[in-house]
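[audit] Reproducing an earlier prediction to check determinism. Same input, same settings, fresh worker. If the C-alpha cells differ from the archived copy the diff job will pick it up downstream; this log only records the rerun itself.
[audit] input (306 residues):
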Amino acid sequence: MLSRRRFFKFIAGLGAATFSTAAYGVGIEPVLRLRVARYHVTPPQWPADLKLTIAAVADLHACEPWMSLGHIEAIVAHANALNPDLIVMLGDYVAGHRHISRRIEAAEWAPQLARLKAPLGVHAILGNHDYWDDREVQRDGRGPTAARRALEAAGVPVYENDAVRLSKDGRPFWLAGLGDQLAYWPARRFRPVPRIGIDDLGATLAKVTDDAPVILLAHEPDVAMRVPSRVALQLSGHTHGGQVRLLGWSPVVPSRYGNLLAYGHTQLNCDVVVSGGLGCSIMPFRLGVPPEIVLVTLGGPDSATS
C-alpha cells in the first residue's frame, strides 16, 4: 500500500523532474546545443560517381535572447567550417513567437547570413513566418517581403518558383526553389484569399530545361507527396522536428502527414530530408531535437555502401 509519505515523495520527485525538463527545454537545448545532422543519400536520379555536399540552414527565427546575432554568427562559422560545395537556407528567418526580449530586424540578420560561403554559392527560399510577419504583404496580397529584400540586398539570391542551373566538376544539376505553401494563411482573417500559398510546383519544374538532376528546396515538406520522381532530392524545414521529439516520435507535427515528414530522411517519389531547424516557433522550447545544421552528401565513392 502506498503510504502518504511515499505519495508526497513521489509527487515531489515528479515536480522536480518536470521542473528540470522544462529548464532544460527552455534554457539549454534551444540556446546552448548545436549539432550537425549528416545524411548520405543515393537517389537513383543522381549520378553515383558525382559527390556533392550541401549544408542546409533552416528556421533561424532571429530574436533575442534565443537566436541573437552572436548566435547566428556562430552558426555561420560552423556551417562554413563544414566546407560544403553548396549552402542552402530553407526559410523562416524572422522570429516565430512573442516570448522575446528584442526583435532582430532583417537588416541585422541578413548581413550575418551573407557571410556564409561555399564554392557553388549560397541560395535561399522563404518560409511562412517570413510572409506572416510582413503586415504590408499580408494586407496587399503580394510581395516582395522584407526578408527577401534584405537577403537580396546582402547578395543572397532568393528563389520563389524559380530554378538555377549549377555544375560540379563540369557536370550540371538544377537547384529549384518553391514559393511558400502557407504564405497568406493569416490574411484569411480579414479578407478573401483565393489560395494561401504562392507555391507553383509545375511552373518551377518547367524552368528545368534539360535532363540534369534536380534538387528542390521547399520550406514546408508536405509538397513531397506531389513531387515527381524527376526530382532527386527535396530539402525542407518548417517542422522543427516537432520541437519535442521522444524516442524518434514527435507528439505534435505541423504537417498533415504527421511523423512521416516530421524529421530526417525518407524516400517517396524522391529522397526527402527534413531539417530539425535552429530556432523555435510558438514557444522557446526544444526537447529531444537540438538545433542543427544539416549536411547532405549526394553520391560519391561511398554510394555503393551507404
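[audit] rerun output stored. Observation attached for the diff report: The first strand starts at residue 35 and ends at 41.
[audit] end
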